[in-house]
Amino acid sequence: MSVPSATLKPRSAAHHAAGWLAWRLLPATPFVLVLLLWMIGWYIFQPIPSTLPSVAAVIEAIWERAVSGELWTHIAASLSRLFVGAAVGIVTGIVFGFIAGLYRNVSEFLNPLVIFFNAISGIVWLPLMISWLGIGHALAIFVIWNTVFFIVFQNTVLGVQLVPQVFEQGIQSLGGGRWETIRSVTFPGALPYVLTGIRSGLGFGWRALIAAELVGAPEGLGQMIFAAAEFHRSDVIIAGCLIIGVIAIAMDRWLLAPIEQRTIQRWGLVIDTAKES
Amino acid sequence: MSTGAASVGVSPRLQRPEPALAALRRMFGGFKILLPFAVLIAIWWIIQAVGNFPPNVLVSPAAVWRAFVYLVTHGVMAEYASTSLWMIGIATVLSMLIGVPIGFAVGVNRYAAHALEGFLRFLQGISGIAWLPLAIIWFGFSHTTTLIVVMYTLIVPIIFNTMIGVRAIPENYALALRSLGASRLRLVKDVYLPGAMPSIVVGMRLGMGYGWRALIAAEMLVRKGGLGDLIFGARTFGQIDRIIVGMIMIGCLYIIVDRLIVQPIENLTVARWGMLRK
Amino acid sequence: MTFIAETAGDLRPRRSILLSPEVAKIALGVVLILLTLYGQQLYGMATASWRLDPSLRGATGPSNVIVVLDFQPERFHSERIQQYGAFAGRDGGLNRIRLRNVRPARLRELAAIPWVARIEPMK
Fold it and tell me: Which of A193, B66, B67, B129 is in the most buried spot, having the most CB atoms within 10 Å?
């Protein structure tokens, strides 16, 4: 029969450590593979630089801009728009989410509207908003707000509605008023969902931002890529894309995941991680 | 309803399968669903009437309706909407055909899955739209460019979720069939495919959500037809009424595809094969 | 006894899958999408004979026609029309477009466009 036998050989500590290291390094293999294929392919086919730049050209493009300060201007512009838009989106999303979550008739009334506007959230507003706000910071911030708000709102409503009634009733039976209930039961109870919403929203928001900047913005990573396209500078384009991806990962891994971890650990609540970003 | 006494006099209505029409009507909440939109349109009407806005800033709901009728009766809406629908349809089918096998191939191996996970997240962080300028350099302003970008956006969640679906299947199921002598193909058909199906369909739904957005954005830049082209082009002429018609159409089409077709498929799949999910 | 009452509500007999709300939704969704994709085309094809001038109906070779629209065309419409033959200018108004050498198959397709008012022979 083909049932594998479970024999456990005793392994040395070094073997364990090597195994652990290999496991940790494994996620790097696709990147290394792509890099190798890129370098080999470039060497063999020698394509025109505007079609496929060499790895060296991309690195040089990044270095040039990092040294001249241009890169940091773009990154700062994009990130600042993200944070302003996301901050407003998160605050409005949580506030309205709580209101809708606490009053069932409000959430039922708003539900069809939320579903519809969620379907057109983000860059679909671009043409209309360009007409109203013109091209600039306000445009990008609106697109981000729009994207983040609906995600945070929906998750907050869900979180508030899912707080077990038993907890709320418990506080109230001990004499807690409305505010007390919200502060010490509803808010912590909804928090995991709110945080999932924030994490998701920021991921979506970052992507929507790049799309908005591509269409038109004074500076920013999206604009950097778009401007480079006009001059067929594919090295700058690829550089920009890589930086966008790195920031997305860094933001999620080192900013949002730890926040989520710490609050979940503190309140000891379990969430099913909806891997939506 | 769950007391013993009720079992004797259970009304026949509970045992007849619901006629579809009654189910449809019930499911739409008896048109209660339209009330919020009616309120919204009323508020819009009032703001526009009172605010005295120039027509290149805000128009009345009536003007938007007139623009809608014009675009439909003059063949414009049908063509642009069809282009977008065909694009998302083709992109979804192709992405499923490519993504599901890849997801399977990677998912069955623990190490491959772990290796690819970070890379897929990285790719997802770079949305398809960021690659659009590069795609334009390679393929020009054409439907190919749009298709490539939309497929990129679609395929990552599909691969990801297929991987997750395959990995979530308990080993025992496969082992049990193997111990009875099942071939690899049989394993795929009877264990892996049904087991991963719910996840795969969830991945398809997520992908379509991202893909539709990427499609509209791509159409805005490539300008070769589609609803994104429609609303972006209308902006050049300050035709706010058309922009709003386009936006509403984009929302409605997405809701039709997502809620009337994809979500029910998801529900049916989960109902049929969702035993393995916790 | 509770067992019987509970199953009456919970379990649905298999044959009602076809009448379940999910399938109804899918059917409705598919109908709406098909309508969007093909509705106008089908209408145009059904009413094609009303648009084509009688003298053009049995055309076996390329014809010279005037495509008449009952509205002021936008660039969209002009572009579409001009793909069916060689553009030969306007015939009086912007809504009357002259086309030369329109092949019979293309002529039929032209007649099936729902927003075309009439197709007249060129004199």
Answer: B129
